[in-house]
Amino acid sequence: MRPRRYLQLDVFADRPGAGNPLGVVLDAADLDAAAMQAFAAWTRLSETIFFLPPTSAGADYRIRIFTPRQELPFAGHPSIGAAWAALETGLAPDTGALVQECAAGLLPVRVEGRGANRLLRLRAPDAVPQPVPEGTRDLLSHVLAPLPRGPMPAALWNNGPRWWLVELEDAAAVRALAPDLAAIASLTRATDAIGLAVFGLADAAADHAIAVRAFCPADDIPEDPVTGSANAAIGAALLAAGRFPGREGRYMASQGRELGRDGRVTVEADEAGAIWIGGRVQAVIAGSATW
After folding, report:
1. Has residue 23 got a pLDDT over 90?
2. Rounded to the nearest 5 degrees, what angle is found at the Cα of 237, between the Cα atoms of 82 and 200?
3. Residue 209 pLDDT level (bands cut at 50, 70, 90)
4. Pick from 24, 5, 14: which is nearest to 78 by CA?
5. What is the CA radius of gyration of the chain?
6. Neighbours of 247 (CB within 10 A)
7. How far apart are CA 110 and CA 108, in angstroms?
8. SS3 251
9. Is the pLDDT of residue 245 over 80?
10. DSSP annotation string for 156-216
11. Is 57 in contact with 255 (CB distance < 8 Å)?
């Protein structure tokens, strides 16, 4: 065993202690999937990423992404954190644009500013609505029955991970929700989904357009603090419904306040209809890990 450079970052955060914590192992080329999974389970963070040499022409770096229980082809806060770590550690040059390689493919990243003011925006994989698997409608009905629903029908979307998206009547309903985690776990296991995300529109006086919460109890994460892939899927669903909020194709989402993490995610739809998610990153721990 040898020491490996290790970082812990807060992603979608304007200060340490906000956003979503991320474990980062920088020297992982000789680790196999079992070792990565074991380390991710040990950290008990919602995701841990591992840097590897890129295998695709044009990629600036490559990562693998693990929750405590499984590998994901894409996740938002690990991808934003990976871009920040690649720049800060010299793995990639700060030219204003990067390309990340992960299991979901090659994902472009835009870099604005430097240091504490650096804002990173990543093009999420295209989100695609999924059919409701046979035999799971009763599980879905059980989850939805007590919820104060908004106008958009509940739906399963896939942008790497699969998310159940449920609109509630407003942001206040999102913040007040006491979810049935056992029912959500049953639904997500039966439908091969990573979790269920609820969202609601905020009032005009708020500093954000929507409030979001995401629950992943089947993955040993009762509530995820701030979730890039879920926010990207919600943006895609709102765009498809002709209800994309904000101005000039961009809005701010608030997530994590209920956990004391108060994260902010920018969600943008470009001219081609692709969804970009963005945010800032704070470094909290820099050291080494022996694994």
Report:
1. yes
2. 90
3. very high
4. 24
5. 18
6. 7
7. 7
8. strand
9. yes
10. EEESSSEEEEEEBSSHHHHHH----HHHHHHHHHHHT-SEEEEEEEPPTTSSSSEEEEEEE
11. no
pLDDT of the residue at 170: 98
169 is catalytic: no
Contact status, residue 49 vs residue 25, Cβ threshold 8 Å = yes
Question: Rounded mean pLDDT of 229-249?
Answer: 96
Antiparallel, parallel or unpaired: β 195-201 and 162-167:
parallel
Measure Cα distances from 266 to 159, 273, 275 in Å: 17, 15, 10
262 torsion bin: left (phi>0), alpha (psi -120 to 50), beta (else):
left
- In this predicted structure, the answer to whether residue 116 has a pLDDT above a threshold of 80 is no
pTM for this predicted structure: 0.95
Longest CA pairwise span in the chain (Å): 55
pLDDT above 90 for 11 = yes
| pLDDT average, residue stretch 254-269 | 98
Active-site residue, selected from the candidate residues 47, 88, 223, 268: 47
